[in-house]
Design brief:
By secondary structure, this protein is α+β, with helices and mostly antiparallel strands. The protein is about 35% helix and about 10% strand. Among the domains are: about 60 residues, no CATH class; about 60 residues. It is built from 7 helices and 5 strands; from the N terminus they run αβααββααααββ. Strand 4 and strand 5 form a beta hairpin. The longest helix has 12 residues.
Length: about 180
């Protein structure tokens, strides 16, 4: 029985192998105003795919290339600025106050959270201080919550207050007797 020896051709060089063969001049010796994606990636110490993602998504602080016949050309001045520690300048900085619903009604100071008003906790606390003795069912209608016990527990635990609780028997519409908690 005869065996045949099959020789496979050498595989073509991959793009990664081609990339390592390329040498680029130092950035300070570059005389062109724009370079290709591979060279920009080399200077920015990024992969070329990262540069392509910057071109597609245009994230804040990323370099923006120009497109010439479907190819990307990266500005050398922006690469130098990025490597020197400065972010590239934006042509038109975003206006963050343009999307506010009521910019003249701002009620905050920078660095602090605004005070919440009309919370369930505040309403329950006001009811307790006025000696209204809330029950679970009353809280559904007055404070629009079914979690009165959780709010009472929060107040007692956070502020170490002793809030009296007592169970009372009450009749229901169908004739049963249920125990409810009154605070």
């Amino acid at each position: 029985m005869q065996t045949a020896t099959v020789q496979h051709p050498t595989p073509p060089a991959t793009s990664a192998a081609r990339r390592t063969d390329q040498t680029f001049p130092p950035l300070d010796q570059e005389t062109r105003t724009h370079v290709g994606t591979e060279q920009a990636a080399f200077y920015c110490m990024r992969k070329p795919q990262t540069m392509r993602m910057w071109a597609a998504l245009e994230p804040k602080g990323a370099i923006r290339p120009i497109r010439v016949n479907g190819r990307l050309a990266w500005p050398i001045a922006e690469i130098r600025k990025l490597l020197s520690g400065g972010a590239p300048e934006m042509k038109t900085p975003p206006n963050h106050t343009a999307f506010e619903s009521a910019p003249d009604k701002r009620d905050y100071t920078p660095g602090t959270l605004p005070k919440r008003k009309n919370t369930v906790t505040a309403a329950v606390l006001a009811g307790l201080l006025e000696s209204n003795y809330p029950t679970g069912l009353e809280s559904v209608f007055k404070q629009s919550t079914t979690r009165l016990a959780a709010v009472i527990h929060y107040l007692a635990r956070k502020y170490c207050w002793h809030i009296d609780r007592r169970s009372i028997a009450t009749g229901t519409n169908d004739g049963r007797i249920e125990e409810i908690t009154v605070y």
